[in-house]
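Problem: given the chain below (699 residues), write out its structure.
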Amino acid sequence: MSQAPSPLGSPVVRREGRDKVTGAARYAAEHTPPGCLYGWPVPATIAHGRVTAVGAEEALALPGVHAVLTHDNAPALKEPDDPTLAVLQDDRVPHRGWYVALVVADTLEQARAGAEALRISYATAPHDVLLTAEHTGLYTPETVNGGYPAVRERGDADRAFATSPIQIDATYTVGPLHNHPMEPHATTARWTDDGHLTVYDSSQGSTTVRDSLSAAFGLRPQQITVVAEHVGGGFGSKGTPRPQTVLAAMAARHTGHPVKVALPRRQLAAVVGHRAPTVQRIRLGAEDDGTLTSIVHEVVTHTSTVKEFVEQAAVPTRVMYGSGHSRTTHRVAALDVPSPSWMRAPGEAPGMYALESAMDELASALGMDPVELRLRNDPVDEPDSGRPFSSRGLAACLEEGAARFGWRDRDPRPAVREEGPLLIGTGVASATYPVYVMPSAASAHAAPDGSYHVRVNATDIGTGARTVLAQIAAAALGTPVTNVRIDIGSSDLPDASLAGGSSGTASWGWAVHKASTALLRLLHERTGPLLPEGLTAHADTGRDVSEESPYARHAFGAHFAEVAVDSRTGETRVRRMLGVFAAGRVLNPRTARSQFIGGMTMGIGMALTEASALDPVFGDFTETDLASYHVPVSADVPWIEAQWIDEDDPHLNPMGSKGIGEIGIVGAAAAVGNAVRHATGVRLRTLPLTPDTLLPYLL
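Solution.
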């Protein structure tokens, strides 16, 4: 009997696709248990201080209002593992938008009316929300996000820079950015009489949510079930539980009813994290032939007074290009701002914008082709650690992309290509993102009818996780993918890591592959038919992934962009964009292409439309909805193409795959910015490149 061909590498259609387009897929806010109440969170209206009184009488007198939770009467929590979850525990207001009350009512409208009827008094204190490169509160942390050292230095970077014949010294600024998933953060929570808590949560990892709730409420993990079957995007903002999860559970315990809390979009910026602003100074020293001699990347960013989170923007510079000397540093100021957190490709997205813009400036100073400059400085080993790369496909991506894009036909002179009032330009940038793999567990079951059932607490945030995991299991078991059933999205399943850091498929897939392989071995060892209960194998990759690799493992890519800048209005339009990526073995071309293009689209938004600022007087973000915070729409991406180079890398995981969720955004903004500079001859170093910033240079 011949074995079924491996489904890995096939464009298998998403398993949940029909459910999503027909409305059958159920999201967190669409679970409404009998007797469910609705909670409306109330944010602080001061930037710093404390609550002195909450007048709730008028709110409680309104029809349908059941309760008003404040720090005076909310259930006491144990110390949460994340300080941002310690809501309604005291009278402090660390930043504007911090939740100070929750109104619970029969309907959403009644809860909102109750919130508007509250009378809250405050004692205000001075606040500081503005980041500058000279802020007196700047300090050097021990580590930055991801556990990387805040400072790394090789050689004498300052001396090497000073003696380099070609020098670039530039500062790039990226303001705060916001995740804005299509599905806002929402939780439905209910308690049973025996003290079991069930939570339907919009989250990137229900195991993580379960463990956080366990710590906050002093429960055993077995007393909590967290379900995240379908999630409408997260981009990092749902990587850990957010306040609505705790508020819903608190209110459900307080009222004895199930409670649903769905955050209004206008409140998201203050409570679900954001990409912290960065001020990045980059100095590149090079020989006349373009060989880099010195790289200095100095990052200034902010964190909150609630918790420390430092955007690791200089870390990708430690990976990207070879040089004899380098220094990468991070400094941070703790301000009275909402706590920053993960946003797609944290560190790499803003850091590579600065580095790749500086590389473009260096190419101009040298009179060298930007692709050639990058190829000339492509290292064999990772510059920071000296470890060999498990695979490094950057050169192949640049060369393939240049050929597909028609790069060699480009006139390198800036501001010479015109089509009437339109100025046309092209730009290129490199991309890199690390390979992360997290411990996960899975089980695989064989039934007497020949079918298989795989269980793993993965989370599908729109990436097609169900489909790819079924492909991995089917390939290991030697069976058609239609013969494999997959259960994901519940903390009652075998524990798995969250969907973040482009680690999902590598982490869950390794566990699924291991469990499926173990099951196949058990089946081969048996004689006779299976018993009615079938046969099950369990696997855990904790030991596998804990072994330190001798290789530096990263995905790479190259972005090429063509833009048209209207000299009359300053408006920039991306005409076409190509991304070529080296991300190990691509397991499903259909879902992979979607991920790459999605990331590139976010890069376009970062470059041209997405802007946010903190109001120095009121202390809050000035852009808090999709009317003022402009994400790209279909008209902004008329032609966008993603390609990849298959890599045979045996040093990753059993599938040979690297993460693809975030490599698409890294470098994309720089490619667009470099194209704008080529089109106009103007180098602006602050994103986004909006018409009002460009137009003064075009008149």
